[in-house]
């Protein structure tokens, strides 16, 4: 089974979010408590198993205490071709 381009992009975005979260020493539940995203959804995003809306990534940026520039990099990856 081959992995499609969109799936690879979801995996890359998820890995980036996980790396940021772990670098900040935060658990999934800690991030979820800081924003309006369920911790199980965050886990699915990090594992590349869930597509999300821009608003979800903005909420994650709040939970991860990211600046607008950092959130925009993650959002820009959604349009990466």
Task: Provide structural commentary.
With 81 residues, the chain is mainly α. It has a single domain (5-79), classed as 434 Repressor (Amino-terminal Domain). The protein has five helices and no strands. It has helices at residues 5-23, 28-34, 39-46, 54-63, 68-76. Helix 2 packs across helix 3 (39-46) and helix 4 packs antiparallel against helix 5. The chain is globular and about 30 Å long. It starts with a helix and ends in a 5-residue tail after the last helix. The model has no long low-confidence stretch (mean pLDDT 87).
The geometry reads as globular
What number of domains? 1
Characterize the main sheet: none
CATH uppermost class:
Mainly Alpha
CATH topology annotation: 434 Repressor (Amino-terminal Domain)
CATH level-4 homologous superfamily: lambda repressor-like DNA-binding domains
Q: Please state roughly what percent of the residues sit in beta strands, choosing from under 5%, 5-15%, 15-25%, 25-35%, 35-45% or over 45%.
A: under 5%
Q: Please give the number of β-strands.
A: 0
Give start-end ranges of low-pLDDT stretches. none
Gross CATH architecture? Orthogonal Bundle
